[in-house]
Write a structure and sequence with these properties.
The structure holds 3 protein chains of 3 kinds. By secondary structure, chain B is α/β, with parallel strands linked by helices. Chain B is about 45% helix and about 20% strand. The chains are: A mainly alpha, B alpha/beta, C mainly alpha.
Amino acid sequence: MLLQRFLIRLLTMLVTLFGVAVVVFVVIRIAPGDPIAMMLPPGATDADIARLRALYGLDKTIVEQFFIWLSGVVRGDFGTSISLRQDVLGLVFNRLPATLELAIVALVMAVALGGTTAILGARERGTAVEAGIDIASGAALSIPDFLWGLVLILLFGVLVPIFDISGRVSPQLDLPFVTQFYFFESLLRLRFDLTWDLLKHMLMPAVALALPLAAIISQLLKQSLKEVLDLDYVVLARVKGFSETQVILREALKNAALPTLTLVGVQFTFLIGGTVIVERLFSYEGLGNMAIDAVINRDLPLIQGIVLVFALLFVLINLTVDMMYALLNPRLRHG
Amino acid sequence: MSACLEINNLSAVLANGQRVLRSVSLAVQPGEVRALVGESGAGKTMIGKAVLGVLPSSVRVVEGDMKLEGEDLGRLQPKARRTLIGARTALIPQDPLTALNPSRRIGPQMTDRLVRILGWSGDKADRRIRQLLDEVQIRDPDRVLRSYPHELSGGMRQRVLIAAAFAAEPRLIVADEPTTALDVTVQKQILLLIAELQREHGTAILFVTHDLGVVAKISQKVSVLYAGKVVEEADTTALFTAPQHPYTRALMAATPRYTDPLASLKPVDETVLRGLAAEIATADQAWRRPHG
Amino acid sequence: MDDARIIRRRLSPRLWLAGGWLLLALLAAIFAPLIAPQDPLAQDLMLERLPPFWLDGAEPGYWLGTDSLGRDLFSRLIFGGRIAFIVAFAAAIAACLVGSTLGLIAGYFGGWADRIISRIVDIWMAFPPVLFAILLVAVLGTGLSSVILAIAIIDWTRFCRVIRAEAMGQSRMDYVENARIAGYGRIGIMLREVLPNVLPSIVALLSLEMGIAVIVEAILSFVNLSISTDDPTWGGIIAEGRLSIHQAWWVLVFPLITLILTVLSFSQFGEALKARFDPVLR
């Protein structure tokens, strides 16, 4: 049953990805303005333009172009960036780790913050503590990551300048890394001096991304914890002599976390979507920042590649969450 | 020898000030089964929850004390009270479908009190649980212990919960309508099982039920409740042979007999209810005066 | 019913606070030419980076200070509000009409209509929304109508998902069944029986979406892709403030406060309205 569920999800995932490919391809081709003309120096002849158009396949019909591009994509060939004159896949893989690191650190922060406040709020239900948590999470949820980023820049970049407000790492540092996952690699290499420098750059964008997600986790988890805490098996656990914290952690949390989990999956894709503007805000050299440059430069192959990679990431996250839900739910696991 | 459980003058109110328990007093002697009988909403479950310290947050105890084997529960620190209740009491819940955690296997749910509260070794707890499963006539303990709750029938789950309740040799068990949620055919088996284990272990039980038939089968003493007030208290045999309070008589008349299910069945009489309402009103007035 | 009344009474202040701020900001935007003390476009290098009125060196008439080109911040903010509100209303209403209609159809009719619409929503959800917006504006060309169109194209799914789920729940209710037995047509039932019951959610989402549209417009003008003219926008002021953050913090602080208050107000206003008009709570 699990396998069947997985295969159906995999199929819908492919359909979704194909749809994304079609939409982004069509959207880009209706764009006015000729990217080829922008690439060439003034005074280029019509023959030059035609040659370059042929090189990028722009002289064929749009359907032909689509399938040429798609067959390339399937083979792992996303084409060549027009503005950077490099292989698109290489460029994307060069930047993707920075974005993934940022998103994962933000996710960990959101789960930690949201989970703690939810447990605290559920334990102190009906008190001023819970009311305070409700107000804080309401505000954190209503204000989007873009504005949180600006607030953090003002607070910890200017007012109390303890963090760096732009870039991913201090430029004067000598980086020994072989992968692009600087943060994780610095941890593995025990180069905590570099970890600290990376963290100082990463912390504010990560917090900006994490706050709305933390608020959602906090609200949903607290709500379902409170519902679970009225159930008979929780009452029974209290009678057994377990403290309220033990009761929440041992009996209530797992069952309450299941409904939260599905929503966190969707919300995590929103968080990754948010990296686009937050990276721009903090001049963080990730995929999102490159995407905005690509749009401004009308770099069609690069835009297509980046959007597809984002879409792939999103559907993979949804697939993972769906499978995790099935695995954690004993009723689904055992038929 | 002190009583196993002694409740004196216990009153509890809702957030809006309405009384749900009206100066309840009762005692359960060691090894005795005390039935609490009344219609739904009479507060009988509330008494059990008050003893175990799991009242809903909307209900507040405003007066009275509860002594568990001579220890005044109200005077203990929360942690000490929790541990005492965990060590000396147990609960057989009403609905076996919701009383087991759906995401945990049966085994750890049965042993966690023994291991984590009473400090037993895992092996000792496991042996004890298997012994109890045998007593409740579960013949394939390996499978049951490895199961998740949804893999067992309602009757099986109630057996598991009964076994878990007796496992730590508590002095007092609160049985909160333990047969109500079960099929009629299973009800009788479960009832007999509780009675049998009670005799063998000598455990005192506070047996909450709305069913006088169950009362007659299992208890030695009865408290009849109406609107959170004990209206009659007696030995079970005495109550059935010579009920004193008109409400008790009416309740008996409203209970079907196996032999002749419809013959004597009639609802509680209007005049009885009016008499009860007056009784409660007088009691409340007397109570309000010193309590503002 | 007592509980509902308590909730409503408790929610009232937030309805008035949120509504009050929105009304104030809207009026300031409408009457911007009358209120603004300065021309929002007038540059004066003698007056560059003037601080707000309570600091030393402030000039009378430039209450919130000036930016690096000597333009009056307060005047730019209230003129920027015009574009923000036009985008908010137009984009949110467009997204609402498209999304709610498709959501109603998918939720009420189910079957193939639902399958196709849900698949399109899935595809849309696989796009990073901000990148999608930037891409669309780049494709459609900068300008007010492009911004509105881009936001509507992206955010209709928000309405569609919620309304679909609610309409689906409603269409299983007995009263819908009764109406069908009574012989009413399917579209008639959808509009007369289902729509009124999902309306509170639509209203709340509409208000929420207006706040989101304001943010998206600010993001677009922050990356310099919103409207192509020199008209001041909140996002444009923020971009300017981000650059001169160490020399003139106020250029970032005031539009940021304005944006936060506006977004918070839109979302709270929607929630409060929903609580007020929800037939179950009322």
